[in-house]
Automatic annotation (TrEMBL), chains A, B:
Cofactor(s) required, per the database record: pyridoxal 5'-phosphate
Protein name according to UniProt: HTH-type transcriptional regulatory protein GabR
Organism: Paenibacillus solanacearum
Keywords recorded for this protein, A-Z: Aminotransferase, DNA-binding, Transcription, Transcription regulation, Transferase
Disordered: region residues: 79-108
Keyword Transcription (UniProt): yes
One Gene Ontology MF term: DNA binding
Superkingdom of the organism of origin: Bacteria
Ranges for domain HTH gntR-type: 12-80
């Protein structure tokens, strides 16, 4: 007999008490999945309650999937998330990890994960950030109880505008900045501002989650090939796109950097076609062998560029904070139509403002640059030492990930698999293609931001072991 | 001669240096609006630079609105935000304040503001929240550098599910909860999940910003009258709506509470029509003279109700955190299509989880209930004392605002104006109508959450003074 009881002293009606108790026992395993549940009649007798009560509870269990009915047999306990259960809490979904559609059971844990979006675990400026939060709360006064500007705190945007000019040659006034919670937030706003635009060109391969998101909003996607100079402007000129999404500072995933002449040509395209360029500058702070090239936004004289930056690389993705710089025409459109949105916590915006104003920000970036510069150097060195002439390294002049072209006639899928068998996670470039085409040699991309130097070495040694039998014979 | 100079040692190209310097001087007032700017030729000479450089800089100033060109006369400095300047930084846009379209110059400051969305300035649990943030950061470990689940931290959602069951009779599993940054975040997700739905019914009058937002997403809005029992289910049954947005615990703005029989009838409508009910339970924690009625979500046996709650009332709107409970069918849809979104900071979610788990939350709510209960009592008392039989108070059995029907043949606009002339801000119910119809007697709504008891008394005394000459003669 199940352990169930109804009481008059609950705020919940009887059927809800019954439903909740049964559901909780099914969830906790007290009633195991697959167990046959008592008949309506026998529960009525056990609990001394009405038929409606029991039927209502069963109806809810069935609707929610905690029970399934087998005709002529009875009602059985079930796991509503049986087949399509979301990843368990600890897994931490990573959008760039498994492509745009992370689904299914959690990935097995890898000993070493060269995840491209990961950042260094030691670098978070714990002490100063805690102090900023503390001081900010202390000084907040009446503001702590009020709504702020949905576009972002004005004073914070002012500080951001200064930083962007100094550091990224982005030229803007605070009115052009929209503070958000991440790139999908920005895409959501652009989707509305782009009413009337039908086709958006995308780097191929490119950042699949953003492509997927625009697609969900009903835009037609035109894949445009990426060369070692970033998106092919020539191919773009042939397309019918009215907007283009690009990562010119360090193309995702190939890592190429768009040179100055291509930038000017791209801007001419936008001017001629009255098209918009979405410049995603996600890791532009980190450059190694290249001289800084001003952002497209800074070169733009016609208000065609939308610039998107993030705190996910230079600070932490856990904060969920980014920003978008709109050209003035779109600012006006936004103000006129009153787009409604909810950005990140005001408290975090105040804290970040102080963090920048008090110089912690620049110190932090210098520290990150130094650490990543060192890691980058070591990473390239290790790959050359262990994998030698069997791989070609590209896309390594900036950012936190690189691309490997591997000298084998096996597929990239096999390479990923063999690596996984040794406990090393590397990423298949194919997954970032909209319409994958087989490349002559398989391509893999790896991030070095989230691994220690020791893990790095261990990982590369294991990769050598994993791939050794696969090299193309000379 | 303007104070401008170009250098080779800047990261910015010459035209950008020139543009930036001129723009900054225009912004700061160094070059006043309306001042005639030097000709291209004279700037070339002054700076020893090329025609292209000067022309490019002027082109940018003109594009961005920092300069205007008057034919046959020259180029003049201008304020790009002249006419449509967004509200200045300190004003703090409040969405419920001036209706869905807050625009134009900042409102004059009122001495006493009965703003409906305001919360008590003294109640924010500064000490314990600071401690939660502190401890959370301390314990965060590796997680601080990683992306989380875009649907919200799983452990936080588990705690939320428990709270919702205990406190609001909302029955759900964590998989049904989507943590967001506010109601517009939730609306953004619903807009996608509602693909295929054409018409959404709305309370008339109702919460204009949400109505406006659904409208922007392309849904047809069907206004349905509100009675003293909430939305008229009878009228809804006559409509073609496939979904309805309602505030049954305390209708916004009229304040009516939907009784149990109407809830059951509404649920039957949804079941019959396969329609969705969006239940916005924004201030359901605060009840005065009414017994708690379980949320619609808790009564729903068919998975038709979407429940939305917020931390803006019981905690603070500055945090930008809310949550939505989806029926399982929509959870499945969401999982299958992989809707991409960015919720609030993980750190804030962890802190809120601890805040609830450690019992601060329940203590805080008890404290809020007590304070607001007291304020509510005093507010009603003051209105009765000073405005007496000239006004009728309704919608005061729950929440943080009430409705006044005023015994005068003047319009609500006049009442608001007269109040403003005495330095008191009250709110015109007309603004929350989609298609305003003149009511027999003008209606005003006022919040008491954000004013102290002293301000409250002062405000009501001033209202008496403001309206005294307007009473209808008996
Ligand atoms: C290409 C690209 N854009 C943007 C981002 C950052 O997005 P967010 O600001 O939402 O964290 C990433 C993160 O990995 C990325 O790889
Ligand atoms: C009717 C209604 N719904 C919802 C909200 C809360 O929205 P949010 O969670 O975005 O702060 C408010 C705030 O004033 C409101 O009045």
């Amino acid at each position: 007999m199940l352990n169930l009881h109804l009481t008059d002293r609950s705020a919940l009606p009887a059927y809800m008490q019954l439903y909740t108790q049964m559901r909780d026992q099914i969830r906790s395993g007290g009633i195991p999945y697959g167990m046959r549940l008592p008949s309506v009649r026998s529960l009525m007798q056990q609990l001394g309650t009405s038929k409606t009560t029991v039927e209502s509870a069963y109806h809810m269990l069935l609707t929610e999937g905690y029970a399934v009915s087998r005709p002529k047999s009875g009602i059985y306990a079930a796991n509503p998330f049986g087949a399509s259960q979301p990843a368990p809490p600890s897994a931490g979904t990573d959008r760039t990890l498994s492509g745009p559609l992370p689904k299914g059971p959690a990935e097995e844990a890898h000993r070493i994960d060269f995840r491209p979006s990961a950042v260094d675990a030691q670098l978070f400026p714990m002490r100063s950030w805690r102090k900023m939060l503390h001081d900010t709360l202390d000084r907040s006064g009446e503001k702590i109880n009020k709504y702020g500007d949905p576009q972002g705190e004005y004073a914070f945007r002012t500080v951001l505008a200064d930083y962007l000019r100094n550091s990224r040659c982005v030229v803007c006034v605070p009115e052009q900045i929209v503070v958000g919670t991440g790139i999908h937030y920005s895409v959501g706003i652009l989707a509305k501002l782009f009413a009337g635009i039908g086709r958006i060109a995308f780097e191929e391969p490119g950042f699949a989650p953003v492509r997927e998101h625009f697609n969900q909003y009903g835009f037609r996607i035109e894949p445009v090939p990426v060369t070692e100079k970033g998106i092919s402007v020539e191919a773009l000129e042939q397309s019918c796109a009215e907007a283009v999404y690009i990562t010119p500072s360090h193309q995702f995933p190939t890592g190429s950097v768009m040179p100055y002449p291509e930038r000017e040509r791209l801007l001419r395209w936008a001017q001629t076609k009255n098209a918009y360029i979405i410049e995603d500058d996600y890791d532009g702070e980190f450059r190694y062998s290249v001289k800084p090239i001003p952002s497209l936004q800074g070169l733009d004289r016609d208000g065609r560029v939308i610039y998107i930056g993030t705190f996910s690389k230079v600070f932490t993705p856990a904060l969920r904070m980014n920003y978008m710089v709109l050209p003035l025409t779109l600012v006006e459109k936004m103000n006129n139509v009153n787009y409604l949105f909810d950005g990140p916590s005001r408290i975090d915006q105040w804290a970040m403002q102080s963090f920048i104003e008090q110089g912690h920000w620049y110190r932090h970036i210098r520290r990150m640059r130094k650490t990543y510069g060192k890691k980058h150097h070591r990473f390239i060195g290790l790959i050359r030492d262990y994998l030698g002439e069997h791989v070609r390294i590209t896309g390594h002049s900036a950012g936190l990930h690189i691309q490997l072209t591997v000298d084998t006639n096996r597929t990239s899928g096999i390479l990923v698999e063999r690596a996984a068998a040794e406990g090393v996670k590397v990423y298949d470039l194919q997954e970032m293609w909209m319409k994958p085409v087989p490349s002559e040699r398989p391509q893999i991309y790896l991030g070095f931001g989230g691994v220690s130097e020791q893990q790095m070495e261990e990982g590369i040694v294991l990769l050598k072991k994993a791939w050794e039998g696969l090299w193309e014979e000379a």
